[in-house]
Design a protein that fits this description.
Structural class: alpha+beta
Strand content: 15-25%
Order of helices and strands: HHHHHHEEEEEHEEEHEHHHEEEEEEEHH
Helix content: 25-40%
Low-confidence stretches: none
Strand order of the largest sheet: 5-4-1-6-9
Largest sheet: 5 strands, mixed
């Protein structure tokens, strides 16, 4: 069998008018070989004979297993059918027939309209950072990317609870996007909702924005692939070589980096996000005139220890409100406690867990109230008319006491 180079040379010489006999003599091959090369419609190629192989003996058993379990790994299949040969060759043969049994999951091409869609996700930095109180952890980073302009927004939040997620969404919408996309795409994040049911407060939040929340079905990563790629972009371009002293320091560095990252040219849209966001914003909805309810909010009766709990941490409250109902609110930055509209406690939000945050003024006020309680005048004790002298019982039973 001649090589592809010889075949090409034969056809070139023949096209130039060189006789076949002279071509055969020059290349040292037979005339029949030259005639076949001239008459062929394509270059020569090696074709393996389709005879039986070692896999042929186990193929019926493999097919029976694939019919019941289409996604069974090749290594498990090899173990079940007793394969003892090369696992690589076995895997190649299984790959060739698995498509007859495994369901097909096609991915459609998606186009985006200006102002229509915003993809949301949580990214957890691989390196922990200090949270205070001697604790280190990797809090979630809320990432929201405009699908049309590829404009990236992100902020680190204390937790993945509903209150913190909504607070982060509102902060990014007002401070960075400065408008409201018409559709907000989320996966099945617990703080947003699962199984077609939204978490408490999410429906009211989206209603205030007049926008639609789209929850993707499980195993559908392609529908928010833009924000998924942004998460990988953070790990390769933002994190390497950086250190952080606190969540506030992380957010400050992240904001500075996003200002540069949004100026890069995105090949898929042929523009820079900072340039395309103008058309995106123009097609979005305006921000609502009234801010939605976000963060943590609860009402509790203040106990004698004058502390309230928010997201696993305890915060002191003015002890003059002991016994009264107080309103506790917390956003991403501070915790505020109110009694009848009056602020009775205000603390910076603690990102650590199981921590007690105390205002020295509250401790001093509690000490004053405690001394006043202990030093209050006690009314004189009045004699109890039901108390009787025990000697009366001795006389009644004839008992004489010496």
């Amino acid at each position: 069998m001649i090589t592809v180079e010889d075949w090409a040379l034969i056809r070139r010489l023949h096209a130039e008018g060189v006789p076949k006999a002279q071509i055969a003599l020059r290349l040292g091959i037979s005339r029949n070989t030259v005639a076949k090369a001239v008459a062929s419609v394509g270059p020569p190629r090696y074709e393996r004979s389709t005879g039986p192989t070692a896999f042929t003996a186990v193929e019926p058993a493999v097919r029976a297993l694939l019919a019941k379990h289409p996604m069974m790994p090749a290594t498990v299949l090899a173990e079940r059918v007793g394969w003892e040969g090369s696992i690589t060759w076995f895997r190649d043969n299984v790959r060739g027939i698995r498509g007859e049994y495994a369901p097909v999951d096609p991915a459609d091409r998606i186009s985006y309209r200006a102002g229509d869609q915003l993809q949301c996700d949580l990214w957890f930095p691989p390196d922990p950072l200090p949270l205070g109180a001697g604790q280190v952890d990797s809090p979630p980073v809320l990432v929201m990317t405009c699908s049309y302009s590829r404009f990236i927004t992100a902020v680190m939040i204390p937790s993945r609870t509903t209150g913190d997620l909504l607070a982060g969404m509102w902060v990014l919408a007002t401070e960075q996007i400065q408008a409201v996309p018409r559709r907000w795409v989320w996966d099945n994040e617990t703080g947003i909702g699962r199984g077609g049911r939204l978490a408490e407060g999410v429906a009211a939040f989206m209603g205030t924005l007049a926008a639609e929340l789209v929850q993707l079905k499980p195993r559908d990563p392609e529908s928010k692939g833009i924000v998924e790629r942004v998460n990988g972009y953070f790990e390769t371009s933002f994190m390497p070589g950086r250190t952080f002293s606190s969540p506030a320091d992380f957010n400050a560095q992240l904001r500075g980096w996003l200002g540069r990252a949004n100026t890069r040219r995105v090949r898929s849209i042929g523009a820079r996000p900072t340039e395309a966001i103008a058309a995106d914003r123009a097609a979005m909805l305006p921000l609502p005139p009234v801010a939605p309810a976000v963060g943590h909010r609860s009402w509790v009766r203040l106990g004698r220890d004058y502390y309230v709990r928010v997201a696993g941490n305890d915060y002191s409250v003015d002890p003059t409100a002991i016994g009264a109902m107080v309103e506790v609110t917390a956003d991403l930055h501070r915790v505020v406690v109110r009694h009848q509209g009056r602020i009775v406690a205000e603390h910076p939000r603690c990102w650590a867990s199981a921590t007690t945050v105390t205002d020295p003024a509250h401790v001093a006020g509690a000490a004053v109230l405690r001394r006043a309680y202990q030093q209050r005048p006690h009314p004189p004790a009045e004699p109890d008319p039901l108390v009787r002298d025990l000697a009366d019982y001795d006389r009644a039973f004839g008992i004489e006491v010496a």
